[in-house]
Amino acid sequence: MTPPPAKKRPTIDDVARVAGVSRGTVSRVLTGGHWVSPDASAAVTAAIAETGYRVNPHARSLATSKANSVAFLLTESYERLFDDPNFAILLRGASTALAQSDIPLVLLMAGNEAEQRRATEFITGGHVDGVLLVSSHQGRQDFLPEISRAGVPAISCGIPLGFERKIGYVAADDFSGAQEMVRYLRSIGRTRIGTVAGPQDTSGGLSRLRGYRDELGDDVVEDRIAYGDYGFASGERAMHELLERAPDIDAVFVGNDLMARGAIKAIESTGRRVPEDIAVGGFDDSPAALDGSPTITTMRQPFERISQEMVRLLLAAIAGEATAAMTIPTQLVRRESA
Amino acid sequence: MTPPPAKKRPTIDDVARVAGVSRGTVSRVLTGGHWVSPDASAAVTAAIAETGYRVNPHARSLATSKANSVAFLLTESYERLFDDPNFAILLRGASTALAQSDIPLVLLMAGNEAEQRRATEFITGGHVDGVLLVSSHQGRQDFLPEISRAGVPAISCGIPLGFERKIGYVAADDFSGAQEMVRYLRSIGRTRIGTVAGPQDTSGGLSRLRGYRDELGDDVVEDRIAYGDYGFASGERAMHELLERAPDIDAVFVGNDLMARGAIKAIESTGRRVPEDIAVGGFDDSPAALDGSPTITTMRQPFERISQEMVRLLLAAIAGEATAAMTIPTQLVRRESA
DNA sequence: CTGAAAGCGCTTACAG
DNA sequence: CTGAAAGCGCTTACAG
């Protein structure tokens, strides 16, 4: 009945006093309500409402030694980051999935080594209970051993090259997706199919090229293969290269949509038309596939699903379950470019 | 000299024991090193290295009642979010600037009302010391009063419509930028200049249209004004509308680059050419201005600068300084579209 | 089902 | 400059 102290935030003691119970009982209803009588529970609930009580997250974390938060660690060069909407989609998906469990997302951007050190420091320092790893490039993962040594669970987006067996991951089925795109291009009558492959130190870049090779089998012609870095400009450049080396190609499978946009620009700049002269297939189904002309036929990566599964696996790992790896199928989306 | 306890993380007590000083002294060097003798300081530093001690952030936060973290609150529909790279750039800028002070960024995405409630709860719950507000649309800010009532400092990106006087902000000079673009279009000989304006419940959309009107003065023709929502598709649609209503326009100022891409698609689909028949000026200098053909002449918004200043003002506000508002000039970037 | 008590790991006046 | 002590606000065995 005593009104809570003037200025300060009410604490658990204030609630206990108002409810006429002990601090322990208040804490019990706060942490799940088990082993509390209905009467006590009701009194506490009322007292919480009356006092406007909110749990102090730091005190709780100190007592439980759980941070109740998760890190989203992005180790990617900044250029890629802004160019590539996939990251934003992953971020949203993860944030939303975590919100369901009332767990905030701490965003850690570590594009260079100094930032990676800082991020590692932060993660192993007890600020978070686990980490969602989004770092496509190999070699940007020197911190992985340190994190796992510290016992902080982590789940990777895409196969963590070199750590496949050490940390869990969720990846799109890049290999089969690439196969399917090539198969599709053949099905519409194309016979000289080139590719602009993504970076070969990423699992996606690697697997998609492998899928392309596998599907083509004996029809693979090395001159029809060029490489980019997933950026728009690199797609444009690689396509010019391809047109020079193999001017007779009638289709090209490009490692992601953004490079596909660049490739289309290159193709059109030589007076050829898409898809009439050269059909273009992309990968991702990112906004880049839609925002421009022609719209791009592509393999859809289910990023919402991927981020959801990542969160699910991470939460499970934090709860002590064994980690796991999963692969999720991609889906052909037909549009104007092929 | 005693080795630290086996499994547990070393605490400040372990350090004190190894260094042969009291806990208070260790804490003093941890928190700045003032009022500590050189000898003691050296001993503590050595002990920290020896034990591998790391401060427990929760314990520190509980004792100081400071969270040592800052929220980045994004209240924007998800579609916009992925379409618009500006958010990513702001995010990066803020993250980098905060990292300098060793302050992590907690990302809060609140696209709908339920998420906003949750975010407000989180912010006023003591999880963070301040918030960077990125929410262009008015009406998405019902939570502002509650946050300021809780005494949590906030700095807005762009003018917080309806709260101009209550919370600090950093905004690009949209009005002058729009004026300059129109002036430029005139300087290259265009006389019938239309505009695709952004959403009129955002300070940017509002001010840019105002700048357009102001610069044109008596030459404003209402039929040459259409509206979009900053998305690609809306730019395309609005441009078609404009071409119907005012087929003789020879230039168009579009409220952002992404809509400008859509407008270009619309223009070219009618057989007209950019910039020969219709010159197109955008706003932002986002990747969309570069990733496509033709590249877009635009007004550069200095987002790195904006995010830096936001962080600076927020940190100052957290430190108890009075809040402030600042406006930063934009810059014309000439490319192919005009 | 409930209360009293110890403990989580730090910081910060207070004396000296 | 330094140590002893109180305090930050919670949780969780432990008895009952």
What distance separates the N and C termini of chain A?
73 Å
- The total number of structural domains of chain A is 3
DSSP strand tally of chain A: 12
Class by alpha and beta content of chain A:
alpha/beta
Roughly how much helix do the residues of chain A carry, as a percent range? 40-55%
Would you state the CATH class of the largest domain in chain A?
A: Alpha Beta
User: How would you name the CATH homologous superfamily of the largest domain in chain A?
Assistant: Response regulator
Mean pLDDT of chain A: 90
**Assembly state of the chains shown:** homodimer
Rg from alpha-carbon coordinates of chain A: 26 Å
- The coarse silhouette of chain A is elongated
| Most extensive chain interface and residues per partner | A-B, 54 and 54 residues
Largest sheet of chain A: 6 strands, parallel
Number of discrete helical segments of chain A: 14
CATH architecture of the largest domain in chain A: 3-Layer(aba) Sandwich
Helix and strand run of chain A:
HHHHEHHEHEHEEHEHEHEHEHEHEE
Low-confidence stretches of chain A: 1-6
